[in-house]
Amino acid sequence: MKAALMKAATYSGLWLSLCLAVFGVTTLNGCSQTVPKDHLYQQLGSTVGIEKVVDALLVEIEHDPQIVHHFRDTDIARFRKLLIEQLCELSGGPCKYTGASMQESHTGFKITQADFDNLVRHLMKAMTEQNISIAAQNQLLGLLAPMYGDVVYR
Amino acid sequence: MKLLMCALLGVLLSQPAVAGSKVIATGGSTSIEGAAGGGIVPWAVINGYASSGQWSVNSFTSSVGVDDFTLQNFGIGASYNNQWEVSLTRQKFQLDTIGGDLQQDVFGLKYHIAGELLYTSLPQISVGLQYKKHRNSGLPLAVGAQKDSGTDIYLAASKVYFGAVAGRNLLLNATVRATKANQIGLLGFGGADHNHYQYMFESSAAVLLRPDLAVGIEFRQKPNNLAFADEEHWRDIFVGWFINQNFSVVGGYVDLGSIAGLAQQQGYYLALEATF
């Protein structure tokens, strides 16, 4: 069991930080978000748009020596799949995140505030490259930001 | 000023140097007393782009030109770990109509206590001090101030609310300052009947039209210690462009009220900052 968790943690990696603890989000907000979530999902370009953002983000991470080492043992294909699931679900799309919670998946990685800041900047750049509106970017960042406490210094 | 403009142009043509991990604009600009903030209000943010375990240094110059006075500021600063900020600033205050000028130095220190500007529901909270001293004590004492030096202590809270205004991010800041300063110290500290600390409220609100472009307003409450002339609250509106992680420019319109008996002092504000 512990081994399985560790493995899941390794798989999900830092990315999930962006994504978010589905657990956290559902417990905090319940299932009835007042924000029109489906609207955000559409603004991100639906699943295809989210995939493009995630791919652009992966490229940014790959070229960032500050954080790339966190992914040394990560199964990138699985990580990509889980991140897409999370962003899709978080933005109100028809997906179900199947990974571990944010806190579980980041424990032991010793992610710093600088690591987190870098990831946020990479995500902003990736979204801008995909021509996602500033309003949609801000909305997604606003959903991801509260995950900070579950991700850093674990 | 010209030198900085040239440097600015030079760097605009080259690749920005790596300055740190923080998100664009989250180090704020540099206020007239050298602390990271808006134009006239220190914020809880730490100057520059240094995140955890990182250093940054910055330099700035700014000008305030109103009807009868010109205030020029320049300074240097450093920050560490998105937690500590130190700054040294020289202020040159020209009394264009009355004649003469004076200079004041400001040593600033700020410590980030709690909260994270972008990431926590608790606003980022910092405590700071500003030790100010005149290079020549003649004028402040002549106008009735008790001293030519003083220390301000402030507590600031800043937070960014994502998508709060038409999908744009909103920064709110509130600062409480304990001070004896007359016209931020330019006219000395304390007066004949008022030589004790008073709490002053200062605030800023800015909308980020883009992550690198902010428009905002500020308010700074002022004491009224001197008998010879009334002192009034300060206000401004500003536009700040964070060109990249190394350079920013802020322009604004300020209303400084009455200064040294000359009423309705209004005019421009311009600040240039470089950080690495």
Mind explaining what this structure looks like?
The complex is a heterodimer of chains A (154) and B (276). By secondary structure, chain A is mainly α. Chain A has a single domain, classed as Orthogonal Bundle (Globin-like), CATH 1.10.490.10. In chain A, α5 packs across α6. The longest helix of chain A is centred in the middle third of the chain and has 17 residues. Chain A starts with a helix and ends with a helix. The relative contact order of chain B is 0.19. A twelve-stranded antiparallel β-barrel of chain B has the order 3-4-5-6-7-8-9-10-11-12-13-14. A two-stranded antiparallel ribbon of chain B has the order 1-2. Chain B is mostly beta strands and 276 residues long. Chain B is built from two helices and 14 strands; from the N terminus they run αβββββββαβββββββ. Chain B has one domain: Beta Barrel (Porin). Chain B is globular, with a radius of gyration of 18 Å. The interface between A and B is medium-sized, with 23 and 24 residues.
Report strand % of chain B. Answer: over 45%
Greatest chain-chain interface? A-B, 23 and 24 residues
Number of helices of chain A: 10
State Rg of chain B. Answer: 18 Å
Q: Please give the order of strands in the largest beta sheet of chain B.
A: 3-4-5-6-7-8-9-10-11-12-13-14
Helix content of chain A: 55-70%
Principal-axes shape call of chain B:
globular
Tally the structural domains of chain A: 1
Q: Please identify, by name, the CATH architecture of chain A.
A: Orthogonal Bundle
The CATH architecture category of chain B equals Beta Barrel
Task: Give the overall average pLDDT of chain B.
Answer: 93
Q: Portion of residues in helices of chain B?
A: under 10%
Number of helices of chain B: 2
